[in-house]
Amino acid sequence: MDMDSSIAKPRVERFEAVIVGGGMVGTALCALLAQAGMQVALVEAQPAPLSLDDATGELPAPRVSALTPVSQRLLTHLGAWPSMRQTRVTPYRGMQVWDAEGSGEIAFSADEAGVGVLGHIVENAITQAALMTQVMHHPNVSTFFNVRVQSLQRASGNAPNHTVGGDWLVLDDGRQLQAPLIVAADGAHSALREMAGIEVASDDMQQDAVVTTVKCAKPHGGTARQAFIDGRPLAFLPLTVKGDDHYCSIVWSTTAEHAAQLSELSQQALGDALGEAFGYRLGAVTVCDKAHRFPLVQRHARHYVQPHFALVGDAAHSIHPLAGQGVNLGLMDAAVLAEEVVHAWQRGAPWGELSTLRRYERRRRFDNSAMLGLMKGFKVLFGSHDPALTLARNLGMSSMNQLVPLKRVLMRQATGERGRLPPSCR
Predict the structure, then answer these.
(1) Average pLDDT for residues 259-264, to the nearest whole number?
(2) How far is 310 from 184, CA to CA, in rounded Å?
(3) CA-to-CA distance for 126 and 249, rounded, in angstroms?
(4) What is the side-by-side strand order in the sheet with 176-179?
(5) How far apart are CA 361 and CA 304, in angstroms?
(6) What is the mean pLDDT of residues 66-90?
(7) CA 339/CA 422 separation, integer angstroms
(8) How far is residue 129's CA from residue 298's CA, in Å, rounded to a whole number?
(9) What share of the chain is helix, strand, coil (3-state, %, to 5)?
(10) Alpha-carbon distance 173 to 155, whole Å?
(11) What's the confidence (pLDDT) of residue 256?
(12) pLDDT band at residue 389 under the 50/70/90 scheme
């Protein structure tokens, strides 16, 4: 090899957008931009994901999401929902929430909310596989699997560079990717966010989540249930496996000490503990999988955008699983960012400039902040042992349960019908 070729600079591959992170949110954003005609690169540190068939095991995977009807419409728009329906998605038309320390209880139904279903419980692996199928088969997408970002290089000066150029990424295999817009969708511990120097406000919820799959003696009846037990919410989310509606995914958000104790129990002992804690509303509980445990920390980035750079999903905000809204918030980030970016791109405006990206930030930050605050408020409200507060919350739940119009408003909010929705979600 001659000297000149040995020191040749690596070739820079140019795109109109580069997305780092091939989870559900990053892949959805990639699909939205590609459908509009933009040339997009998707960079993912993990190997190529499983196919949709391989992602559907004999038993449901432990990590699931409660996808709202708005998220369902987005997935339908992207072509992912029809294939997801052929695998394993469980609609729920009812929801029950109660305080195990008192008599307060509230129940919602799809009819009261004025919708067909309140949502669907879906394994994250199924949603991701269905979205990735759309991306990998799209001619406007270049995928980079099993590779990490080594550095983020910023373009010098403030001159518009929406036609060519922009910031660029150096990958750990030596390749370089350049685009007017780079998006971090690489999760709560986003390395790209750190490279960009964006600070994050963290709120340790002082809880761990224990998740697993169970089979109950009684059918779930298409109802999602959640009990507040000494300030520690325990959710039984309905799953249907090969037509059997006795399965549930459980999420118990509890103290780190209690979570450690639960994860060390035998499956039989854990099933007994779950059944007792849930008041045997679904009868005896049989645990079908090992218990998985992870700490709960709410995070919110100080800023979502910089020139030619944006955060989406967990890279921008991570939320307590109490309301099952994390993935839905992230998918809405993707839909709104895509709407603003594509609108600018189609009219020849600089889609990576701060003025364009700030419109996305303004539209999403308020909604995300409100949901983060609500989750923190729930933790304080239901974690208190003050007798007066306990009485007040029980009376409040019971009173709300009698007010159908108010419940309808709240449930419409919970189904994702908030604010101005992008066309892809209508």
Answers:
(1) 96
(2) 6
(3) 15
(4) 12-14, 176-179, 167-171, 149-153
(5) 6
(6) 96
(7) 7
(8) 26
(9) 40, 30, 35
(10) 21
(11) 94
(12) very low
410 contacts 115 by C-beta, under 8 angstroms:
no
CB atoms < 10 A from the CB of 367, how many?
17
195-229 pLDDT, tens per residue? 999 999 998 888 899 999 999 999 999 999 999 88
Smallest Cα–Cα separation from 367: which of 404, 335, 400, 401? Answer: 335
> What is the layout of strands, in order, in the sheet containing 305-306?
141-145, 40-44, 17-20, 182-184, 309-311, 305-306
Higher pLDDT, 413 or 424: 424
Look-up of token digits 């001659």:
2
Burial of 57 per CB tally in 10 Å (0-12, 13-18, 19+): exposed
Q: Which amino acid is at 164?
A: V
Q: How far apart are CA 253 and CA 235, in angstroms?
A: 9
CA 62 to mean position of chain CA atoms? 15
**Domain parsing of the chain, residue ranges:** 12-202+297-425
Q: How many CA atoms lie within 13 A of 196 on its CB side?
A: 28
Closest CA to 140 of 240, 222, 37: 37
User: How many Å separate Cα 173 from the centre of its chain?
Assistant: 29
* Rounded CA separation 29/176 (Å): 21
* Token pair for 10: 């690596």
Burial of residue 410 (CB within 10 Å: 0-12, 13-18, 19+) is middle
Cβ atoms < 10 Å from Cβ of 381: 16
Residue type (1 letter), 176: Q
Structural class in CATH, domain 12-202+297-425:
alpha beta
Q: How many CB atoms lie within 10 A of CB 426?
A: 10
CA distances to 123, 180, 268, 284 from 168, rounded to whole Å, are 34, 8, 53, 56
Give me the residue label for tokens 């007798």: 387
Contact 168, 352 (CB under 8 A): no
